[in-house]
Amino acid sequence: MELTLKQLKYILVVAEERSISKAAKKMFICKPSLSQIINRTEQELGVQLFNRDKKPLSLTYAGELVVEMAKKYFSMEVSLFRELSDIEDEQAGRLVIGASPTRGARVIPPIFAAFHEEYPKVELVLKEERSSRLLELLDTGEVDLAFVGHNSSEADSVCLFRDRLMLVIPKPCPYPIPLQDGQEKISLEHFRDTPFILLHEGQALRN
Fold first, then answer.
1. Would you place residue 204 in the very low, low, confident or very high pLDDT band (cuts 50, 70, 90)?
2. What's the whole-model pTM score?
3. Lowest-pLDDT range, 37-41, 64-68, 181-185, 197-201?
4. Could you count the other beta carbons within 10 Å of the beta carbon of residue 143?
5. What residues are paired with 94 via a beta bridge?
6. Which is nearest to 35 in space by CA: 16, 14, 53, 54?
7. CA angle at residue 153 from 152 to 155, to 5 degrees?
8. Which among 160, 110, 111, 152 is positioned nearest to 134, based on CA atoms?
9. Mean pLDDT of 79-99
10. Phi-psi region of 143 (alpha: psi -120 to 50; beta: other; left: phi over 0)
11. Are 97 and 125 in contact (CB under 8 A)?
12. 171-187 burial by CB neighbour count: b if 16+ within 10 A, else e?
């Protein structure tokens, strides 16, 4: 047979009060009705839950097992509703964050540490992919937000910082650089026919 939540609650209160009359008063039910419920439950289980020979009531071994399980269940129920309340209040849950490998190493560590300190019950999951793939995962809902290397018309975006890229060339440089005396800048156009070592295709930084 299956014990109902109401039966478990009645058994638990009777065990706590060690008296059917006190438990009935606490549960706002008449004593005969509560007594019938306890008796019927014992008949359905095929075991006696309470020793009625002496006052106050005491639990049998079977009763101790049932009460122990009832306490565990109601404790889990309270924990469950607390967790659900935390999720509703955005204090708990899971947040899947996407980041490209080049951005992840720079952005993620300080953000994760600060976020975990403020929201310790929120599980942070990191998913590393190239920027174009992350936008696809964002569209399908597989990631909640993503750090990518460029703005996109496919999603709402906020610019967090701008990268400064450095062109590294051999020294001495095998390519003539038309720098005049005192000149510090040169156009990237000058290197348009020079072979570059770049990231893989699809990487925002390569583009």
1. low
2. 0.43
3. 181-185
4. 22
5. 123
6. 14
7. 75
8. 152
9. 66
10. beta
11. yes
12. eeeeeeeeeeeeeeeee
Helical segments of the chain, H only: 5-17, 20-26, 31-45, 61-88, 101-118, 131-140
Kindly report the number of other CB atoms within 10 A of residue 193's CB atom: 7
φ/ψ bin of 157: left (φ > 0), alpha (ψ from -120 to 50), beta (otherwise): beta
**SS3 label, residue 180:** coil
Inform me whether the pLDDT recorded for 170 exceeds 70.
yes
Degrees to nearest 5, angle at CA 20 with 7 and 50: 70
The β-bridge partners of 146 are 98
d(CA 111, CA 104): 10
Question: Rounded CA gap, 127 and 134, in Å?
Answer: 9
Residue type, 129: E
User: Cis (ω within 30 of 0) for the bond into 56?
Assistant: yes
Whether 47 contacts 58, CB under 8 Å: no
